[in-house]
Amino acid sequence: MVSKVARTRAFVVAVLLAVAASVSGLMIQASADTSPQSSASQVVADMGAGWNLGNQLEASANGYPSETAWGNPAVTQALIDKVKAAGFRTIRIPVSYLDDIGPGPAYTVDSAWLNRVQQVVDYAYGRGMYVIINMHGDGYKTVTGSWLICDSSSQTAIKAEYQKVWQQIASRFQSYDQHLILESMNEEFTGQYGDPTQPCYANINAYNQIFVDTVRQAGGSNSSRWLLVPGWNTNIDYTAGNYGFVLPTDSHRSSSIPSGEQRIMISVHYYDPWDFAGDTNGTITQWGPAATDPSRTSTWGQEDYLDAQLKKMHDGFVAKGYPVVVGEYGSIDKSSSDSASNRYRADYARAVTATATKYGAAAVYWDNGVNGQYGFGLFDRNSSTVTQQGIVDAIMSGTSGGTTAGGTTTTGGSTGGGGLPVHAVGAGKCLDVPGGTQANGTQLDIRDCNGSTQQTWTATSSKQLTVYSGAKCLDAYRKGTTAGTAVDLYDCNGGSNQQWNVNSNGTITSAQSGLCLDVTGASTANGALVELWTCNGGANQQWKLG
């Protein structure tokens, strides 16, 4: 099941790291929302690629929130700036409250903790990013100080506390515009992963309803901001299927919202197949069509399963105007067991983000700050540097190059012109721009040769391979120089990552990195993606211009 990843990453992995602390940054004065409201499709597109600041503000010690308790340093503006510079436009910030909530009936949240939450929010919000904050650890029985327990007999007190806490959070952020999204809770964890039970699911639905009603009436932009709610353990099947999930009503929302539009999003998580994404035994290290060792590849949870799962969310919610946010996804580093592990992690991230984009959902990568064995980390939080550029590149490629449900991305007008097809010799197909789009960052693939403009390439004297009459160039995505870097379409700019050597041995190599143009996984199927890989003489690295 999806939700069982959470405790492995939070309690088994993160506590092993050393603790460091230093807090920096200034509070940013938020202004009232005067911007136009975004529709469902607009907000998902604007959110772009997302990243989780995991194991920080939901970390705790002895029942109290403590952002350095699980081994990460205090969050800094420099880290958030690096995340934005890497291409992420949305940051999800999990938050625990626990024993920082005072006794009833007021249930006052410690002001110092709310100040710190706001400060970290402002690091991203002040840079124009979308920010998601939630109530994260308060619903886990395994966390000291937890209280949001759906099978507890004390539901009257729990619901009163829940209402009071969200009232304070929403009031604190009432002047923030639509770039701030509030999420009612995380994986509501009751210690079981089987089918949902009643009345526990009914209580989760009740929490979501209290959340929506409370936030809407808290003043300011809260009456119209986007609100995010999960089903049982953020599990896709238990949210989209007939297991008891009930969408909250939204009777207190602003009258300025058009009657035909929603302002509620649905939260799910994706860590399937678990034996690849989160199991720490090191046996299953490969995933996807590029996998080469069946003994290291899961027997389920491949691309067809991923597509079917996100299609369920599209058909059940997106098609009805409720955006879907895959609030967590990712896979752990198993390179200690398989040196090629990170290539498959990148393939997985690209597939999740591309499929989410295809079905109108936003996806937010889970980063727990742990690098190396069994970590999800993409950044070193001490030095504010990227540690997994290949996975970051894959996320950006998938987010920008996906297709929409029921069809391809919007195509740009092509101008035609001379040039020749670039044949993938081993596959008997041609280098192709998916859907004929001219969108920068679109990862290229191979398709049956058809003589179209999007398959007509020209080799220039400056070593560029251009398409659309020279308007766009073959490009190593984000100037990547590592095996697994996506090959995409981009405005021609003369950069070394757009210079290619068409060699007599049939290979096309990047002048910048020396890596070979490669059809992922030696696939011969339409839609097989093209990337850079170490030259190996394989048939999937043989190309012919013309």
What key phrases describe this protein's structure?
546 residues, 11 helices, Trefoil (Acidic Fibroblast Growth Factor, subunit A), 16% strand, alpha/beta, TIM Barrel, elongated, four-stranded antiparallel β-sheet, single chain
How would you portray this structure in words?
Mean pLDDT is 88; it is low at 1-36 and 402-418. The protein has 546 residues and is of the alpha/beta class. Helix content is 24%, strand content 16%. It has eleven helices and 24 strands. It has two domains: 2-401, TIM Barrel, CATH 3.20.20.80; 422-545, Trefoil (Acidic Fibroblast Growth Factor, subunit A) (Trefoil), CATH 2.80.10. It has helices at residues 5-13, 40-47, 77-85, 111-125, 155-172, 200-216, 236-240, 274-277, 303-316, 341-358, 389-401, and strands at 50-52, 60-61, 64-65, 90-93, 130-134, 180-183, 227-230, 264-270, 324-329, 361-365, 379-380, 385-386, 422-424, 429-432, 445-447, 458-459, 465-467, 472-476, 487-491, 500-502, 508-510, 516-519, 530-533, 543-545. The radius of gyration is 24 Å and the shape is elongated. The strands form seven sheets. Strands 1-4-5-6-7-8-9-10 form an eight-stranded parallel β-barrel, surrounded by four helices.
Largest sheet: 8 strands, parallel, barrel
Kindly report how far apart the N and C termini lie. Answer: 49 Å
> What is the helix fraction of residues, given as a range?
10-25%
According to CATH, what is the topology of the largest domain? TIM Barrel
Q: Number of domains in the coordinates?
A: 2
**Helix count, DSSP H or I runs of 4 or more residues:** 11
CATH class of the largest domain: Alpha Beta
Structural class given helices, strands, pairing?
alpha/beta
Alpha-carbon Rg, integer: 24 Å
| Net shape | elongated
Query: What is the CATH architecture annotation of the largest domain?
Result: Alpha-Beta Barrel
Number of strands: 24
Question: What share of the residues does DSSP label as strand, in percent?
Answer: 15-25%
Family: Belongs to the glycosyl hydrolase 5 (cellulase A) family.
Keywords: Carbohydrate metabolism, Cellulose degradation, Glycosidase, Hydrolase, Polysaccharide degradation, Signal
Pfam family, one: Ricin_B_lectin
GO molecular function: beta-glucosidase activity
